[in-house]
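Question: does this match?
>
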Amino acid sequence: MASLRLCKSLFHRSLAQTLHRGHLGPSRGSACTLQRSCVSTSTARRDGDEGKATSEQRGLPLDPEWVEMAKKQLKGADPAKRLTWRTPEGINVKPLYTTDDTKDMEKELPGKYPYTRGPYPTMYTQRPWTIRQYAGYSTVEESNKFYKENIRAGQQGLSVAFDLPTHRGYDSSNPVAEGDVGMAGVAVDSVEDMKILFSDIPLDKMSVSMTMNGAVLPVMAMFIVAAEEQGVSPDQLTGTIQNDILKEFMVRNTYIYPPEFSMNIIGDIFSYTSQNMPHFNSISISGYHIQEAGADTVLELAFTVADGLEYCRTGLAAGIDIDAFAPRLSFFWGIGMNFYMEIAKMRAARRLWAHLMKDKFGAKSPKSMTLRCHSQTSGWSLTEQVQYIHYASD
């Protein structure tokens, strides 16, 4: 509960900073505010009377001059009661934000601790984000063809989707895998398969993200060997391995080993990559799947950061210095349709992570304190918008 309160407090702060720039808060129509799950409903109730809205947010009243003008337009109705809306997280968003809402907050710059505004001084204006299509289907030959077509079309990195048998560590010939081979991703059973998957794709120049958790050891080993047979050493490889087993136990279920043994594997991967793969992200700590399972943005942030802290403890327990592996921890967020809440989530996450790494784990390197992330648009928000067209038909 303490971590949830902290996350919610940071959300209030980030929302105020985000919304006052536009002076008016978002209208009800600018974001999806339906109670989409029992999780979000219980979160709202946790903060008190769900239906009530007040004229104050964090103790800051609405501008009295604006209130009087708004009352006239609303034919005498209280603008605080009429226009304040409550998010699924249980946060009241005022209809008006001004510089008064942020006057007591210290000045922050992008590229400077605690990195609320981002890890780089110029952010994406000078360093655009990498665009990569999450893809993989049928055979390694078909997927390789698709990857090369995307690269020719301008894609800057690869994101490999593996099929369910590969995730669960089954060979495609295993009877258990029947019906699932190549269905929700590409089937990779051997080093030869991995070599074909990246045929004519220079792995010393192409960043590769691999969504793999349960069978992370064989898949990562096959990737490294396939690169070596291209003449590319591990220290030249760039990209990410998801390797987030805690969220598998929580919401996704493609784990193989019990939690303790799974975490030992992650510690071993941290140890290997920190020594041999300095440009490769050893984990992608994932909030996306937690959001897809029904969590609102506050819960997504809280659970994801909590997982991140446990991974830090795992690295330390493996005898690795925090500054040796923390710079290559990465995060993965789901991005829904509530624009302002998603911005607030990422700003709060950066700030919270920087403080935790410095104060809790004694990190010295600025790279250990910066939260770098990958994001994908969510699926649940689309379902919520078009819930009535999901029907069975002949």
